[in-house]
Amino acid sequence: MNNSSQLNRTLGLRLAVIMVIGNIIGSGVFKKVAPMATELHSPGWVLVCWMLGGIITLFGALSNAEIAGMLADTGGEYAYYKKIYNKFFSFLYGWSNFAAIKTAAVAGIAYVFAQSLHSIINIPPLLSSLADFNIAGIFYPFADFNVKFTAIILIVALTWLNSTGIKTGAGLSTALLLLLMAGIALIIVFGLGSSQSGIGAAFDLSTSNDTAITGSAIFTAMLGAFWAYEGWNSVGLLGGEIKNPHRNVPMSIILGLLLVITIYMLANIAYLSLLPVPQLEQINAAGNSIAAVEAVKVFWGQGGVMFMSILILVSTLGCTHATILSNARTYYAMAKEGVFFSNVSKLNSAQVPAAALWYQGVWACLLVLSGTFDQLTEMLIFAAFIYYGATTLGVFILRRRMPDAPRPYKTWGYPVIPAIFIIFCVLLIGNTIMQRPREAGIGLFLILLGIPFYWWFTKKKG
To answer: Which of 210, 248, 332, 365 could disulfide-pair with 13, CB 3.0 to 4.6 Å?
Structure first.
């Protein structure tokens, strides 16, 4: 075991952009158009919500980039919050990542990978006799255990791979992302070029049930888009391993997100030009259908089903891998300061925080057992937007507190853009508490659980 405290700066701008895109594109681009169509009953308004979700996310990224450029360091927001707020709030963010945000993202994406694999090769049932076993009527750890066990195997395998070295992990991310981008490009080109495609229909703002579009419906539909855009800030967690981080971290966030917004818009135009809203509503009601698969079937028939299943496997494999790779660095940074388990502060012989990776992996596996894909994603979006808002508020705080500090990048549209994003975060958090009280309650419980742990770590440190 190598106890060196220094991470190696081996990632340039190209790989940093790849890490941003790889952390974002997972299951959302294939699945979320159906529930959004069910909420809105209008293809044009679905596209509006994808664009609004991208714009709001970009507003957050533009604000985050100023902080990332000023304070770039391993741990991302964990490092930033010490300068903006205090050590306790910084710890609470890191703890929230571990307990409710990033590990839930790993669990949720791995879950979709396992579901997609199950659709290709029928995974035999496991522990079926325990399927009804539950904890408080909320958690059913052995329901669909064959899928959950497959997700756990994936998490363990990718955790081991990432413990072998940062360049190994980044190289796999590049290969998987190239395959994914090629697959999505095929869907866009053949989908929009198909004789069955009605591109004009995709922009129709009328509703299939002749009802008016409400602000509440738009807000709820955008939750699906936000899951698809989640992960854009993860490259900041690798600040200690990126060359020239004050330039490359903010640049990679902005460039990566702009590319993803473009891809999402084109892909969803293709889906909506091939599938009418009533069919998308049926796909959503079926539960086990994926909109992208049904869209490809329109122009490629049953052969498209296998193509899409493999593409979703590649997508979720790459996103699970990228999320595991980047987020363990927060717990490493915490442990270095004595506010996490002490053995997590050590690097292995490959100069990688292997212990942090394994702590993250074990908890992610437990989260796989705890609930469904939707429960996990709704909980983590709720928790994540608390901190997205806090980071953006930091732009105002540091402009006032450190007016003369070097800023390689300044937030475009300040103060309007960051103010709009903060207001949106408050609305999203409030809406989730009212509309999804169980997921919000679980998320808040896991976040607040960090308070006694902070007391324990600091007492032990003292």
So the answer is: 248
